[in-house]
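Anyone up for a design puzzle?
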């Protein structure tokens, strides 16, 4: 099983910081943001990781991460030349996936929980997909809202006015090899992009989408200055607590 990290986008909500660099290169306490999804891949037991980013700062990623050997990874790189949505970016990983399953992490997801057991269990599944959710209380309607029964996803609605649950869709997914077939058949949304919620609903319709709930802390660090600050504080706290042990 291979890993895919999506590290593109214009990050307009974090300007002026992102006028000069990609948001995934911004610092989270003592490391660049991109280090955290890479370390999550390592903890999950993934060895081969593809980083997908835009053309403007791709060289900075290569200069920083190089081959990936410092992480114990084999890194590959792919360019998303225009903003076409998360599903479009995932589709760029088809050759890299080589007819295998993939773990996808959006590069601004900073979280504490190890995904190793989930990855090992998903390897044994014949088909399907997994979406990782987080209980977000009133904030869930800012994301895709997941309706779940006994672990199986019944529906995912993007930013609904009346959420069916308090479980928000994080930017962490696992897909079987059919994901690229689903994307090829997908129509753009009203904003002209291939949406990840629409992609996930293909699996929901056939009854093969499972939801795993993150129990540790999770921050979508690329959405606002408040979330970026929150990620810095949580990571600093965790590092200091570890040093005391």
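Challenge accepted. My sequence:
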């Amino acid at each position: 099983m291979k890993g895919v990290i999506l590290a593109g986008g214009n990050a307009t909500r974090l300007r002026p910081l992102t006028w000069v660099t990609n948001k995934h290169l911004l610092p989270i306490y003592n490391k660049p943001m991109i280090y955290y999804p890479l370390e999550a891949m390592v903890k999950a037991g993934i060895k081969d990781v593809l980083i997908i980013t835009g053309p403007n700062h791709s060289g900075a990623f290569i200069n920083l991460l190089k081959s990936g050997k410092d992480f114990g990874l084999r890194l590959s790189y792919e360019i998303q030349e225009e903003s076409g949505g998360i599903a479009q970016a995932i589709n760029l990983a088809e050759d890299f996936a080589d007819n295998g399953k993939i773990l996808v992490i959006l590069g601004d997801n900073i979280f504490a929980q190890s995904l190793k057991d989930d990855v090992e269990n998903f390897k044994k599944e014949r088909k399907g997909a997994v979406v990782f959710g987080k209980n977000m209380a009133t904030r869930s309607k800012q994301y895709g809202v997941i309706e779940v029964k006994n672990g199986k996803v019944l529906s995912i609605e993007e930013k609904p006015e009346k959420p069916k649950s308090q479980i928000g869709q994080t930017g962490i997914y696992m897909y079987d090899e059919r994901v690229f077939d689903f994307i090829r058949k997908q129509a753009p949304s009203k904003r002209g992009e291939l949406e990840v919620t629409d992609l996930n609903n293909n699996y929901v319709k056939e009854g093969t989408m499972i939801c795993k709930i993150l129990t540790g802390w999770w921050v979508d660090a690329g959405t606002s200055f408040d979330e970026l600050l929150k990620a810095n504080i949580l990571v600093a706290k965790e590092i200091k607590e570890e040093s005391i042990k």
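A detail worth pointing out: The longest strand covers residues 167-175.
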